[in-house]
Amino acid sequence: MGNGTPSDEYESVEMWFMRRTTDRLVRENFEMTDRLVKEDFTMRTIINTSVRKLNDIHQQISGLKEVI
Fold first, then answer.
1. Whose C-alpha in 12, 22, 41, 64 is 20 to 30 A from the C-alpha of 50?
2. Which residues, 6 or more positions from 5, have their beta carbon under 8 angstroms from its beta carbon?
């Protein structure tokens, strides 16, 4: 087992195929989850940066109102 081919007479071709398919699906699921976590982090960074910029603009506008 583990070498990519049916190990011996105890592992049928169907079981080998199911094991290989399961391994591939688990790997793809992990890769997709990793990508989504990175995208989520990127989106949170963009949102947080935008909120900080909006707060800065709000403070500048408030300062101008006081001057006027």
1. 64
2. 16
Can you tell me the distance from the alpha carbon of 22 to that of 1, in angstroms, rounded to the nearest whole number?
14
Which residue type is seen at 4?
Answer: G
The domain limits of the chain are 10-68
- Dihedral angle of Cα 7, 9, 10, 12, to the nearest 10 degrees: 80
- Residue 2 has a pLDDT of 53
Task: Give pTM, 2 decimals.
Answer: 0.59
Query: Rounded to whole angstroms, how far apart are CA atoms 16 and 36?
Result: 30
Sign of CA dihedral 42, 44, 45, 46: positive
